[in-house]
Amino acid sequence: QVQLVESGGGLAQAGGSLSLSCAASGRTIRSLVMGWFRRAPGKEPEFVARSSWIGGTTWYADSVKGRFAISRDNAKNSAYLQMNNLKPEDTAVYYCAAGPQVVAGNLTYWGQGLQVTVSS
């Protein structure tokens, strides 16, 4: 089992920046895919970004490419999401997720989520 706890987020103005952190416990993240999902009101969850443990490769949804950056610190058993040039449409609950691999666009373990609100 992996427990994930997100922190950061909150309120930002359009064009601003926010940082999210995800602290994992229960096992090392060295062999896990770390990712971030978000869910806006009335919409399906969206896979925003992920970092593979193989070669540290990253992937981003087109909606955030060039604005968001995922990173990980295996020594601290943590992952991060730097969000720049925020837009009102980035408003959502953001979830940290982890798993051995991506299966059907999903990861095994999820955090509780935290709110990110971007005002115009």
Task: Give a structural overview.
It is a single chain. The protein is mainly beta and 120 residues long. It has strands at residues 3-8, 10-13, 18-25, 33-39, 46-51, 58-60, 68-73, 78-83, 92-99, 109-110, 114-119. The strands form 2 sheets. Strands 2, 4, 5, 6, 9, 10 and 11 form a 7-stranded mixed sheet that branches. A 4-stranded antiparallel sheet has the order 1-3-8-7, with no helix packed on it. The protein is globular and about 40 Å long. The model has no long low-confidence stretch (mean pLDDT 95).
What distinguishing features does this structure have?
120 residues, mainly beta, 7-stranded mixed beta sheet, 4-stranded antiparallel beta sheet, 11 strands, 0% helix, globular
Looking at the structure, what is the overall shape? globular
Radius of gyration: 13 Å
Helical content band: under 10%
In total, the number of strands is 11
Biggest β-sheet description: 7 strands, mixed
> How much of the residues is beta strand, in percent?
over 45%
Low-pLDDT parts are none
Span between N and C termini?
39 Å
Structural class: mainly beta
Compute the number of helices: 0
Averaged pLDDT: 95
Could you give the order of the helices and strands? EEEEEEEEEEE
Write a brief structural summary.
By secondary structure, this protein is mainly beta.
Secondary-structure topology with pairs:
Blueprint: E1 3-8, E2 10-13, E3 18-25, E4 33-39, E5 46-51, E6 58-60, E7 68-73, E8 78-83, E9 92-99, E10 109-110, E11 114-119
Parallel strand pairs: 2-11
Antiparallel strand pairs: 1-3, 3-8, 4-5, 4-9, 5-6, 7-8, 9-10, 9-11
